[in-house]
Structures are given as structure tokens and as C-alpha cells.
Design a protein that fits this description.
Order of helices and strands: EEEEEHE
Distance between the termini: 50 Å
Radius of gyration: 18 Å
Strand content: 15-25%
Number of strands: 6
Number of helices: 1
Structural class: mainly beta
Mean pLDDT: 85
Helix content: under 10%
Length: 94
């Protein structure tokens, strides 16, 4: 059951509005992202691959997505976690 709310008088269903501009003009896309740790020290940390569904506001460009638990743990610790898709650098071996 959808929870009805009113945000600035425009949105009728919870989570149907953009968090930035309150537009209802949103669309969901599939994606793939490589999340990098910042700075020069980030070069020694794993690159975390995520494949979230992204809700994009087609009016202002605001995007929202969730990071799965295992990938989030890599971002919290800066270390690989079993089962999380990460790249540790170097040349792939075939």
C-alpha cells in the first residue's frame, strides 16, 4: 500500500518526488559504477564495482541509489570483502 504525502503541494505518493526539486518526473535506470577512493592514497585501495538501479529526476538531474551491504562494507573499511566485486589494480590474468 502506498503512503500518501504532500510535499510542497505537488507529490501524491511517498518516494515519487525528487528530493531536490520535488518533481514527479523521475525514471529508473540500470547502471554499473566503479567507485574510487579519493586522493593519491586511494590508488592503493580497491575499486568497488556496483550495479544499482538509479532513480533519476529528469528535471534537475538528481540521482538516488542504494549501495549493497558488502560493497558498502568495502567503502567503510577500505579493504576487500569476500563476495564484493572489487578490483585491486594490476593487469588481469587470463
Amino acid at each position: 500500500m502506498e503512503k500518501r504525502i504532500q510535499a510542497r503541494g505537488r507529490c501524491a505518493v511517498e518516494n515519487s518526488c525528487c528530493a531536490s526539486c520535488q518533481s514527479e518526473n523521475q525514471k529508473t535506470f540500470t547502471s554499473e559504477m566503479a567507485v574510487h577512493f579519493p586522493g593519491i592514497e586511494g590508488l592503493n585501495k580497491p575499486i568497488v564495482w556496483i550495479y544499482p538501479r538509479i532513480s533519476v529526476c529528469l528535471d534537475c538531474g538528481m540521482a538516488q541509489f542504494m549501495i549493497p551491504y558488502k560493497e558498502l562494507e568495502v567503502l567503510q573499511t577500505g579493504s576487500p570483502v569476500e563476495g564484493a566485486p572489487v578490483w585491486l589494480g594490476g593487469t588481469p590474468e587470463y
